[in-house]
Design goal:
231 residues
Amino acid sequence: MATLSSPPSILPSSTAKTPQPKPPQPSPLFFPKPLATALTAALATTTLLTAPPSTAATTYNLYYGTAASAANYGGYGGNSDKKASAEYVYDVPEGWKERLVSKVEKGTNGTDSEFYNPKKRQEKEYLTFLAGFRQLVPKDVVLNNLALSDVELQDLIAGADSLVSEEKKDENGQVYYVYEIDGIGKHSLISVTCAKNKLYAHFVNAPAPEWKRDEDTLRHIHQSFKTVGSF
């Protein structure tokens, strides 16, 4: 008698679950040392470039000029009280240095006083005077006469991009001619007036970079010039 065998099972056999692989994690970002150093330097440079400009106020000293003739020029400084014998005044920024004017220079072009920025000697203010002027002549004539004895002024006028002149009066009615010359790489402010039978011309000159940096200071010293008796 034949033995019946049981049919094979059709149920799927149980199997263990295979774990799913984790997605790859981003690796930390590292810069080579030279690149990291360069980025640090660049950030530092950006910080310096975007730092606000200094707001420290400029302080000034009042200079008393005597406009003495070359014949009466008593050397460097003299023995007289400059304040008591002053014919004009102007402000000098703190830290600027005085350039001593020789008798020869005083007699040649009438330079009476000069101060300069020791950090940039071309940034300066100075005063010249000419005797024998009872009153101002037309503005263009005055400027041309000043240029006759000032080679730098001649060159500045010849290559000027713009030249503006105007007439102003102070609170006492004294007339001043004011010139502003924008030249090639240089800026100049000039104030001219007559008093005591003399013509006084006050110059403020600066190279273009210093003009952009110190314009407020340079305009201040330009406007500070006055003859004694007019302030």
